[in-house]
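Quick sanity check, MG2 domain-containing protein:
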Amino acid sequence: MNNKISIYIFLILIAVHSINLQVKGETIKYASERIHVHILKNNYIAGEAIHFKLYCLNTEDQKLSRISKVAYVELIGENGYPVAQTDVILEHGMGEGGFITSTQIPTGNYAINAYTHWMKTSSPDFISVSSIFIFNNPITEDNKTPKTQFSCGAFRDLKNNDLIHLSSEKKEENILIKTKIEDLNRILRISIANNCIQINEPYKLQLFCRSGKTLEKKFQFNQQNWEVTLPIKDLKSSNYNISILDKENHLIRTAVIHIQKPHQGLFIEKPRITSSRREKIKLNLHLEDLSNHADSLFLSASIKLKEPYQSSINIIDYLNLYQDFSANMLPYYEKFNQVEKKSWIVENGPETLWLKNANLYTVNANRYPENEAYTIGGTVKNRRTQIPFANENIFLSKIGAYADINTFRTNAQGQFYFNLPLKKGLHDISIQVVNKNKLDLNIELKNKFNTRGVAPIPWDHHKLKGKYLAYLKQLYENQRIRDIYKQQTFCEIKDTCLYRGQENFYGETKYSIRADNYVQLDSLEEYFHEFIATVKIKYRKKKPHMYVFSPDAAHTFKQDPLILFDGLILSDASKILNKNSKEIDKIEIVPYEYYYGTSHLYGIISVTSKQKDCQLSELPKNTERYYLPLFTKDVEYLKAKENQPKHYADFRTDLLWEPNIKLTRDKDFNLEFISSDVEGEYELTVEGISEKGEPIVIKQSILIE
C-alpha cells in the first residue's frame, strides 16, 4: 500500500511539473546580435538606388549569427521618420537588398538603421546606424529639410581626431568634452570646457571600461576649462566611457571614446592599378592570399569614384569599435560582472527571454528572435470597450488549395503570435476568431518596423563647398547624362506572386472526393447527401447546420465541426452549401475528434474550389483577410554591357557591386567590370568575414585615365 501511495504521489508531482512547464513556457538563452552594413557608397544623388549587404553577427563568438533569419532596414530622415523600409531574409547570417530613393527627396543627411526583431526588443542601443548623404538639385529656401525635433536622439557621429573616435551623449549642453592623442601617440588628453557661469562648483570625472571603473578624479574648472592627460600604455581597453558628475553625483555629461589599436582582423591595401576608359578589368580573389586559417570567406565588393568624405566604417573598425559595449554603456557598467555569463544587456540589466511556441505560455515583452520563420503578431480587443480578448483561441488561416491553419491562445493582453514561412511574395492569410460573432472584435496586426528611427545629425548647407561641392556636381551632371541616354545602373524587382498554404494541417485523409469524378449535380448539398455519408445536414429555423458522423465513435458529434473553404474557416454552413457545384474541385472530411494546438475539433470539413482563391461575397464576422507582402521588393545592380555603342558616353561612377562572394580553398572569385568614360581615382573595397569570425578588408585604388 505504501508503495502504491508513493507511486501516486510521484505521478502527481510529474503531472504538476508538466503543467507548470506548459503554462510558464520554456526559457532559452540567446546571445546578442549586431549587424554590420556594407554600403556601396556614402554619397548619393536623389533618385539613385542604395545597395547594401548585411552581416548579422553573434556577439558571443563574433561569427555570423544563426539566430535571426529576418532583418529590417530603414532609411531615416533628419526628423527621425523613415523614408523607406524593407525586410531582408538572412541566410547563414547574411542578406542583401536596397532602396530606390525618390527624386523628390530633399538634400540632407540620412541614416540607414538595420536590426533584427531580437535586437530591437532586447537592446535598441545596438541597432546599426550608418549615415549617408543624399544630394538633390536645385536647393532653394523652399525645399530645405525642415529641422523638426525628433525623440530618438541624433546619430552619434564619429569625429575623427588622429587615432581616436569620440561620440557624446548630450545631457548638459554647457559641458563639452574633447579628446586628442599627443606625444607620438603616447598620451591621451581629455579636455573639459564649461560654458556655464557657475564654475566654482566641484565636479568629478570617472572613466569606465568593460572591467569596471579605472579612474575617478575630483576637479574644479579653471577659467571654464580643465584638462587631464593619461598614458596610452595604461589604457588596456580600446573603449572607455567618460562621465562627468556634479557635487550631488548626478550625471551631467557622458561620452564614449574608442582608441584605435592594431586591427583585430586582416586589413590589406593593394597597390594602385591603372586603366584606360572602356577597358574590361578582371581582379582575382584567392582564399590563400587572404587567410591561412579559414576554409571559407564571405565577402562583398564595391568600386566607386573615390569620395572626398566617407561616413560609414568597414567591418574591422565596426567590430573593434563595439567589441566591448555600445555608445550607451553607462547605465550597465555596474552589471558588467554578469556579462561574462553571455546574457544580453537590456534596460533593467542583463536579461534573456525567449518564447517557446507551445500550446500555453506567457507572452513577455514581445521579445523573440525570428529564427525559423517570420513571426506575425497582433492584438484582439473589444472594439467598443477596448477590453482585451484574453485567453481565447484565435486562428491564422492560409488561403489556397490546402487547409493550412494555426491556432493560438491569446494572453491576458489579447496578444497573439503566428509563424509564416520565409517565402517571398504576397501571403494570402486571414486572422479569425471563430464562433464569437456576437462580439464586435477588432484585430490589429503589430508593425515590425520602428515608427521613429535613429536619425542623422542635421545637414548644414554651409559645409557644402570646395572639393566636396565639386564632387557632388560631377555626380549630379553624370546622372543627368545617364538619364538622357537611358543608361540604367539598377532595376527594381517586385515579387507579387501569391504564396499560399502548401499542405493540409491534418495530413491526408481517405474521406475525399473530387466533384468532376461524379455526375454533375445541381447543388453542393446533393453531393453531401449522395456521396459523403460522414456529413449530416440538419435544418433549424430554415438554417442549415453540418455535423460529422464518426465511424470510430459510431455516433454523430453534437458539436459543430471545423468548416473550411479554400483554407478560410466558416461558421455558417450556408456559405458553403450555397456555392455553385460547378465551382467546386474537392471535398475532404476528417471524421474524428481532432486536437490541434489549443483547439478541440469535432471533425473537419474542407471544401476546395477550382480557383482556390476563396471568393466570397462577404467575409465572416470577426475575420480579417490580408495580402501580407513579405520580402517582395529588391533592387538589382545592372552591370555595364560589353557591346554598348561606343558613340554613347558612359558616365557611370559606380563600376561594381558584388554582394555575394564566397571563397573556398578550391573556388576562387573573379571581380569583372568595365571602366567608364569618367576619368579619376576609383576605390575598390572588399570586406567580409570568415566562417571563424575573422573580419577582412581589402582596399585598392584604381586610376582611370
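Posting the structure with no commentary besides this: DSSP finds eight helices and 44 strands in the chain.
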